[in-house]
Amino acid sequence: MISFIPLIVLTFEIEISNVNNYRIMDHFMKLGFFPTPLERLNNLSDQFPGYQIYIKRDDQTGLATGGNKTRKLEYLIQTALDQSCDSIITAGAQQSNHCRQTAAAAARAGLKCHLVLGGHQPKEFTGNLLMSKLLGAHLHFTGENRKGEDIPLIAASCKKNGQRPYIIPYGGSNSIGALGYVRAIKELQDQLKELQQPIDYIYFASSSGGTHAGMLLGKALYQLDSEIIGVCIDKDEINGLSLNQNILNIMNDTKKRLNITRDFCLDEIHLLLDYEKAGYGVLTNNEINAIKLLAEKEGILLDPVYTGRAFYGMIDQIINQKIRSGSSVLFWHTGGFPATFNYIAQLSN
Ligand SMILES: *Cc1c(COP(=O)(O)O)cnc(C)c1O
Question: What predicted TM-score, i.e. pTM, was given to this entire model?
Fold first, then answer.
């Protein structure tokens, strides 16, 4: 009999930690359409014999044309509401998908939205910037301060005007936002079970690190077998740190919320660093050809900044046989389509 006691204690502990996980994971404001579709790309798989190619459509999350930030915002906006805030402040580039989805989420939640945008106000608005404006966001153009340096200034002026602002960091990438992609891995896991199709490799665009951090924690929590490979989009450091260090930091912050005790290290973060050399937002023939390939073969549109580059990276790895023949590969489409209209001249040829 005595030998059963440790077993009982162990079971009890696991249950407690699962209950806590579920409580945190279930506490979000519903903003998107989930699960997003998971589909086999039949024509593309035919073009690359030996590879089964799938796509996960997070460009269809629903929030003002969708994208990956919707999953993060479900947790971030809920936290703002829990703290009785009445306004949101966040930052990004003028063509930020994150800012556009934040503007839409804030509107849905009945919150004011302040967007802190690099550069100067253009004469005419286009793409995401135009959409953010239409979604009712207050736009603050901050010139050379392109990474949200002016957020404290704008927060102070909001408070002076009697507002209670909630600050969402660049890209929504922190331990709260990352929960969205922990849950996304559970969603994928359920879909793969139904399809009865394991996935060997997952490729996606990684930039401020929240998506990547959430996916890796979700993989650990739900025992997903796939290898998760982020294609680095921006060669610049964030907060003076490299992208993989930022991802690890977000993972370490997020795992505390989830009662995950295991240690993670930089070696577990698989980032492809060769594809961002042209610089953030610089459209080259590589991205243009990738956009045209998926559009012409499958009728699916990628974006010029993130997914065009990440998809190019994935196809390049396949063509150069960096991943073994016979593998199944998933491209996780993270959205970004509206930025297309900021590259009309280059995409018209
Ligand atoms: C923000 C964004 C990414 C990168 O996600 P992070 O969590 O910032 O790494 C990828 N694709 C698109 C379309 C995005 O808008």
Answer: 0.93
- Catalytic position from the list 45, 87, 96, 173: 96
The residues spanned by each domain of the chain are: 4-66+174-348, 69-172
Q: Domain 4-66+174-348 adopts which CATH fold?
A: Rossmann fold (3.40.50)
Q: Ligand 1 centroid vs 172 CA: distance in angstroms?
A: 9
d(CA 318, CA 144): 39
Domains 4-66+174-348 and 69-172 share a fold: yes
Question: Which of 97, 275, 331, 337 gets mutated to test ligand 1 (max ligand atoms within 8 A of its CB)?
Answer: 97
What does the pLDDT profile of the chain (349 residues) look like in tens digits? 444 554 444 444 444 455 566 689 999 999 999 999 999 999 999 999 999 999 999 999 999 999 999 999 999 999 999 999 999 999 999 999 999 999 999 999 999 999 999 999 999 999 999 999 999 999 999 999 988 899 999 999 999 999 999 999 999 999 999 999 999 999 999 999 999 989 999 999 999 999 999 999 999 999 999 999 999 999 888 778 999 999 999 999 999 999 999 999 999 999 999 999 999 999 999 999 999 999 999 999 999 999 999 999 999 999 999 999 999 999 999 999 999 999 999 999 8
Residue 173 designated active-site: no
| 3 state DSSP class of 224 | coil
Task: Report CA(3)–ligand 1 centroid distance (Å).
Answer: 50
Q: Which CATH architecture best describes the domain 69-172? A: 3-Layer(aba) Sandwich (3.40)
Locate 279 and state its tokens: 């610089």
